[in-house]
Amino acid sequence: MEDVSKNLTEQSYQYIRQQMEQNVLAPGTRLVNRKLAEELGVSAIPVREAICRLASEGLVEHIQGSGAFVREISREDLDELYVLRDLLESFAAGEAAQFISQSQLEDLQFIIDDLREITADLQERQARHTTPAQFNRWVDLETEFHEILIEASRNRLLKKVIQDQRTITDVFYALRQLKHKIITPASAEETCLGKEQLLDALKKRNPEQARQIMSEQIQAGRRDVLAFMRKQERGKHAT
């Protein structure tokens, strides 16, 4: 019975999060337990538990007397998350340099090759930024790259903490309009070079260099994303 309850809660969690990522449940939307339960064909209990989990991840906020609402992710939220990512993922990169397997190194190289293809297309077309399809593919490759690296660190607790704090960043990318414009030919080239340098440090089993390069990569991402958000905010104020 307990397993059934856990499965229903997980099902509810995945459904609500997917609705958020697809902007069906947009920032500011009130989450009504009964309505969501009817959509899922479950009782209100797993829905309530799923909403509590989303709240613990920072994606939902409870307002006393009003209910639970999809949270608007601010520039300050992302800034703080990038600081945390720097601490955690840089450490993971250093650990990975000690334990990463040959097959994992090869998988990272395949990902870099795919990122290089997207970058080459941007440069050949003299495009100002990625297409939506290229952006989605880029984010998937970035996620896979980091997952392999975290797995290679062989630290299960670190893996869980990193996965939890990346949730808000993932939803940010899903919700932002014109998000594909974040990645330009210059930023794509910078990312590829950084990942190639990181892979070289991993092959050389150099933890300190791996940590430093990962930190530089995350700070570059922080710079680009926050600059993009500032630009969007200026555009809203101008209209």
UniProtKB/TrEMBL annotation:
It comes from Gimesia chilikensis. PROSITE patterns: HTH_GNTR. SMART domains: FCD, HTH_GNTR. Residues 6-73 form the HTH gntR-type domain. CDD domains: WHTH_GntR (cd07377). The lineage of its organism: Bacteria, Pseudomonadati, Planctomycetota, Planctomycetia, Planctomycetales. InterPro entries: GntR_C (IPR011711), TF_FadR/GntR_C (IPR008920), Tscrpt_reg_HTH_GntR (IPR000524), WH-like_DNA-bd_sf (IPR036388), WH_DNA-bd_sf (IPR036390). The gene is mcbR_2. GO terms for molecular function: DNA binding; DNA-binding transcription factor activity. This is HTH-type transcriptional regulator McbR. SUPFAM superfamilies: GntR ligand-binding domain-like (SSF48008), Winged helix' DNA-binding domain (SSF46785). The keyword Transcription regulation applies.
